[in-house]
């Protein structure tokens, strides 16, 4: 996604650049290109929790299919439940395919007095949204309304 954030005026471009660099280094990104547009690269690694959840959900799904087959084809009895042993394959597939390289580009438009006017960010929607929340940025043309469960 590409989102444009507006500068708050109270904070200079250098300070915001430092906050952005700090955010990306905390999230295991490194600067790969500097210039008018700064490019951050990071490796997204698989999560053990997601692999376990995927294995569990696949096991429950296969157990449901086995239950339907047990009722539909009663000749084989409860032998259909052996297909639940295939559920760890879903976790293994996720674990081998989930790592990917992410790129986020940031372009800052600075005024004559050194204040930040706009910032154009392009990258993965989850990373951009996490950056917006942590750095408390305001998207251009949008009004932020707090949700019911937010503090």
As for the number of domains, it is 2
Helix-strand string = EHEEHHEEHE
CATH topology of the largest domain: TATA-Binding Protein
The assigned CATH architecture of the largest domain is 2-Layer Sandwich
Mean pLDDT rating? 88
Provide the β-strand percentage band. Answer: 25-35%
- Helix/strand-derived category reads alpha+beta
CATH C-level of the largest domain: Alpha Beta
Share of helix among residues?
A: 25-40%
The radius of gyration computed from the alpha-carbon positions, rounded to a whole number of angstroms, is 23 Å
* Overall morphology: elongated
| Oligomer designation | single chain
The total of beta strands comes to: 6
Report on this structure:
By secondary structure, the chain is α+β, with helices and mostly antiparallel strands. The chain has 2 domains: 2-44 and 102-135, 2-Layer Sandwich (TATA-Binding Protein); 48-98, no CATH class. The protein is built from 4 helices and 6 strands. It has helices at 13-26, 48-72, 88-97, 125-135; strands at residues 2-6, 29-33, 37-44, 100-110, 116-122, 138-139. Strands 2-3-4-5-1-6 form a 6-stranded antiparallel beta sheet, covered by helices on one side. A hairpin with a 3-residue loop joins strand 2 and strand 3 (37-44). Helix 2 (48-72) packs antiparallel against helix 3 (88-97). It is elongated and about 80 Å long. It starts with a strand and ends in a 12-residue tail after the last strand. It holds the Pfam family CCB1. InterPro entries: CCB1. Keywords: Membrane, Transmembrane, Transmembrane helix. This is Cofactor assembly of complex C subunit B.
């Amino acid at each position: 996604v590409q989102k444009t954030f507006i500068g708050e005026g109270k904070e200079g471009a250098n300070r915001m650049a430092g906050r952005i660099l700090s955010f990306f280094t905390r999230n295991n990104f490194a600067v790969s290109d500097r210039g008018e547009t700064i490019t951050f690269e990071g490796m997204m690694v698989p999560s053990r929790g997601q692999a376990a959840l995927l294995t569990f959900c696949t096991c429950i799904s296969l157990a449901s299919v086995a239950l339907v087959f047990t009722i539909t084809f009663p000749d084989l009895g409860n032998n259909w439940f052996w297909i639940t042993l295939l559920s760890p394959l879903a976790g293994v597939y996720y674990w081998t395919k989930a790592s990917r390289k992410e790129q986020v580009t940031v372009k800052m438009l600075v005024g004559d007095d050194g204040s930040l006017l706009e910032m154009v960010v392009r990258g993965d929607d989850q990373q951009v949204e996490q950056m917006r929340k942590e750095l408390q940025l305001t998207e251009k043309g949008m009004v932020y309304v707090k949700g019911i469960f937010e503090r």
